[in-house]
Design a protein that fits this description.
The protein has 174 residues and is mainly α. The protein has eight helices and three strands. The longest helix is centred in the C-terminal third of the chain and has 14 residues, at 136-149.
Length: 174
């Protein structure tokens, strides 16, 4: 009759400022990702397209269109269940072409599933990023993209949000 979870004390989690990687940290992360080359697209798409980590794990190469320079996040991949199109920035195109030039696979899932958590932790350790904040690559993308382009409405569409309010609240100062 009673919920056993009601007996547990929970800590309040405060939402603070958005945490982003510095350009130097992002560069170190990308260079470390080259050591585990299979994870290079995961990090490039996270940092330079703002794709959520769980979306990256479901994303298929067939939805990454280098010729048209866009990424389709299908409803099956999207956290919100809504399709969105993300325009590729030149640095993302360059990293993906670099990956492909090394003869790597562009079929099936973008992100390898084998031992993923440990491999991601290893890449971050090599990059010297001992403290990792959830969605920091996505937050970095949004912050730097907004600073560069200033078009909050376009960013809202690419990030998959319903309105610009949340983006403005969090990324305007970042």
């Amino acid at each position: 009759e009673k919920n056993p979870i009601a007996k547990i004390d929970f800590d309040e989690v405060e939402n603070g400022e958005v945490v982003t990687l510095t350009p130097k940290e992002a560069a170190a992360l990308m260079l470390a990702a080259e050591n585990d080359n299979d994870l290079l697209p995961y990090h490039a798409l996270g940092l330079f397209a703002g794709i959520r980590p769980f979306e990256l794990q479901r994303l298929e190469w067939e939805h990454v269109d280098l010729a048209e320079q866009h990424i389709e996040i299908t409803p099956a991949v999207s956290k919100t269940g809504r399709r969105r199109i993300i325009d590729m920035e030149p640095n993302l195109v360059a990293w993906l072409n670099h990956y492909i030039a090394k003869g790597r696979e562009t079929v099936g899932h973008v992100t390898p599933t084998s031992n993923l958590r440990n491999r991601l932790r290893s890449v971050r350790d090599v990059a010297g990023l001992n403290k990792w904040t959830q969605d920091v690559m996505r937050h970095s993308y949004a912050s730097y993209w907004l600073a560069e382009h200033g078009d909050i409405n376009r960013l809202t569409l690419q990030m998959g949000h319903e309105s610009a309010d949340m983006l403005w609240k969090h990324y305007n100062r970042a």
